[in-house]
Amino acid sequence: MRTKKFAALAAGMTLTFALAACGGGGAGDTSDDASDGAAAEGGLIGVAMPTQTSERWIADGAAVEKGLTDAGYEVDVQFAGDDVPTQSQQIDSMITKGVDLLIIASIDGTALSSQLQAAADANIPVIAYDRLIRDSENVDFYVTFDNYNVGVQQATSLLVGLGFLEADGTTPGAAAPTAPVNVELFAGSLDDNNAHFFFQGAMDTLQPYLDEGTIVVKSGQVEIEQVATLRWLQETAQTRMDTLLTSSYNDGSVLAGVLSPYDGISRGIITSLQGTGGYAPDAMPIVTGQDAEIASVKLIADGVQFSTIFKDTRKLAEQAIVAAESFLAGEEAEANDTESYDNGVKVVPSFLLDSDIVYADNITSLLVDSGYWTAEEVASGQAS
User: Fold this and answer.
1) What residue ranges of the chain have pLDDT lower than 50?
2) Which of 337, 348, 372, 349 is nearest to 148 (CA)?
3) What is the CA angle 173-176-179, rounded to 5?
4) What are the backbone angles phi and psi of residue 127, rounded to the nearest 5°?
5) Same domain, 169 and 303
């Protein structure tokens, strides 16, 4: 875990209350008190994360745990290995041991209704973390990024790479492509509500170019159900890209760009483009991404992947802690959006954070200067 990167996360946060201790140290608990069942002074908070196969979620778990622990809480952090029954069981266990609050990054946002009802019956507030939990009234708050705008940024970076836009969003005039260019589209997992926001933002941005025929999706696959990637898996994306190349580009057509919603998917696409597609590293189609994973940041620095979206998970973790503090003090958490996130039963009060497009020329200013990655990590493509 990159816990050193989040060491200052809670340094500026002052908590002015303490809850009575409650029992229970979880399997993911590493505090000194876990062995005898005594909770830390601030209470016990359960944190359910979806997987450890993505460095992004490892970083989120580390950031939330570090911030809460430094703020005086005992924390039970569990990773579910992208398995819905496992996550359900983990949350059940957290409720049984008497957590005071739950922070949940769900695998399937529709699969936790019974757990949320049990939490509500026990008066346990629930904060949805970056992934909206659907079809339940028992979701108290949502912390996330502006997910529609993330999709807009992904499509914008694709348009920049293709030459339709400058990096500042202006049009390049006569330098813009005049002949149609071929692109293919990828989306995230359909059971993740964010995937729909990302794709909608991207498609709304690309639609004028599709309508006028300057961008062509040669495969014809433009609906999210056709382009989704179950569980956001790199291998699944690679297999689909292989199929697209052999079925739609076996006539010598050139693929100019690929809209990818996540860096792991991007790396699967790139593997396919270099293998099945035969594209050289210095002549790759424009490939987008998300999460600024270190392996993809190096690919961007090397000119292989074109862009990614930086969502500073340190800020997301901090906002989750701020919301938790409010709920545990018996107050409402501060929202900056009370309209956008309808989970099918209610509009969930939300706090949205901003994101940034990362290109090769701003890696240092966005990622290194902020302390998210070091220059050495970018150069090696590996977290230290």
Assistant:
1) 1-40
2) 337
3) 135
4) -110, 120
5) yes
